[in-house]
Design goal:
By secondary structure, chain B is mostly beta strands. Chain B has 1 helix and 8 strands; from the N terminus they run E-E-E-E-E-H-E-E-E. Chain B has a single domain, classed as OB fold (Dihydrolipoamide Acetyltransferase, E2P). By secondary structure, chain C is mainly beta. Chain C has a single domain, classed as EutN/Ccml (OB fold (Dihydrolipoamide Acetyltransferase, E2P), Beta Barrel). Chain C contains 1 helix and 7 strands, in the order E-E-E-E-H-E-E-E. Classes of the chains: A mainly beta, B mainly beta, C mainly beta. The interface between A and B is medium-sized, with 34 and 32 residues.
Chain lengths: ~100, ~100, ~100
C-alpha cells in the first residue's frame, strides 16, 4: 500500500454497469515526507474518505478484494483513512494536527 | 519474496472491514545485505514483526492470500529473517 | 521460467504458517550459454526439490503457478524452484551441470 492525499472527487453519469454506485476520488500519491510523488490518479473509495485526508491505496488485483469492488473491474482502491504514522519511533503524522491535511 | 527493514507503523481506525485487526507496517525495501533500495511501502503484517527488524514480504495478490479472509492488501510481511548466506558471506538479523 | 543459479540461503524461524518446513534459497538468473549470473538476486521457495548452493535450477516466477505446484491454491508465494538442471544443449554443444 502507498500513502496518498485525497484531492478531489470524480463525477461520472455514464459509466460501465460494473462501476455503478462507486464513489471515485482523485488521489495524489505521497512519499514518506508527505510530498507529492508522481501523477495523481483516480481511486475507488471503499471507506468514505473525504477531501484533504491521508489515505492508504491498494493497487493491482488486490484492489478487487473490498466489499464495493468485489468481482468488479478495479485497479486502485482507498482501503483506510490514516490516523497516525510513526517512523523510527517518532510520530510524523497525526490526523487533525498535521498541517496540509484538512 | 523481497527483503526489507521495518521503518515504522500506521494507525488507521477507519478502514475496510476485512482489514480489522491487521497491523500496518511501513517498510523500506533493501537488498540481501540490508542496504536500502527503492521507495517505501506500507504492508500488512502476518507474523508480528517489530521495529528495525529484517523481514521478507510478498507483493500483489500473493500478499492478500497470506490472510485467510483475503483482504484488499498489495504487500504483506510473511517472515522475519534470522540470517542470510550469500556468496560465502553471512548476514544476520542485526544488519544495520 | 528462468534458468538460475543458487547463490545463497535464508533462514527464518518466524514466518507465515504455510511456509513452515519449506526451504528458502537465493537464486540469481543465469545466462544459459555463458553460464554467467546477472541481475537481481531473488528469493525462491524450494519444497520437494533438493537443491543447494551452486546448483543450476529452473525457477518459476508467477503466483498462480506457484499455488498449483505447491499444493494449496492460496500460498503467499510467487517465486519457486521446480527443477534442477542436469545439462543443456545448444548448437550441438552439451554443458553438464551435475
Amino acid at each position: 500500500m502507498k500513502f496518498a492525499k485525497v484531492v478531489g472527487t470524480v463525477v461520472s453519469t455514464q459509466k460501465d454497469e460494473n462501476a455503478e454506485g462507486w464513489k471515485m476520488m482523485i488521489v495524489q500519491p505521497l512519499g514518506l515526507d508527505f510530498k507529492p510523488r508522481g501523477d495523481s490518479m483516480v481511486a475507488t473509495d471503499a471507506v468514505g474518505a473525504g477531501e484533504g485526508e491521508l489515505v492508504l491505496l491498494t493497487s493491482g488485483s488486490s484492489a478487487r478484494q473490498t466489499k464495493v469492488t468485489k468481482n468488479r473491474p478495479c485497479d486502485l482502491v482507498i482501503v483506510a483513512i490514516v490516523d497516525i504514522v510513526e517512523k523510527e519511533g517518532e510520530v510524523i503524522f497525526k490526523k487533525f494536527e498535521t498541517k496540509g491535511f484538512d | 519474496m523481497h527483503p526489507a527493514k521495518i521503518l515504522g507503523r500506521v494507525v488507521a481506525t477507519h478502514k475496510e472491514d476485512s482489514l480489522t485487526g491487521v497491523k500496518l507496517i511501513i517498510l523500506q525495501p533493501t537488498d540481501w545485505e540490508g542496504n536500502p533500495i527503492d521507495d517505501y511501502l506500507v504492508a500488512a503484517d502476518a507474523v508480528s514483526a517489530g521495529y528495525d527488524e529484517f523481514v521478507f514480504f510478498v507483493e500483489s495478490m500473493e500478499a492478500a492470500v497470506a490472510f485467510s479472509n483475503v483482504p484488499p492488501i498489495d504487500a504483506s510481511i510473511v517472515g522475519i529473517i534470522d540470517g542470510v548466506q550469500l556468496d560465502d558471506e553471512y548476514y544476520t538479523r542485526s544488519v544495520k | 521460467m528462468k534458468l538460475a543459479r543458487v547463490v545463497g540461503n535464508i533462514w527464518a524461524t518466524r514466518k507465515a504458517t504455510v511456509l513452515k518446513n519449506k526451504r528458502m534459497l537465493l537464486v540469481q538468473p543465469m545466462d544459459p550459454i555463458s553460464g554467467k549470473t546477472h541481475g537481481k538476486v531473488m528469493m525462491a521457495l524450494c519444497d520437494k526439490i533438493d537443491a543447494g548452493i551452486g546448483d543450476v535450477v529452473l525457477v518459476m516466477d508467477e503466483g498462480s503457478s506457484a499455488g498449483q505446484v505447491l499444493g494449496i491454491n492460496s500460498r503467499p508465494v510467487r517465486t519457486f524452484i521446480f527443477g534442477i538442471v542436469d545439462e543443456l544443449e545448444k548448437d550441438g554443444n552439451i554443458v553438464k551441470y551435475t
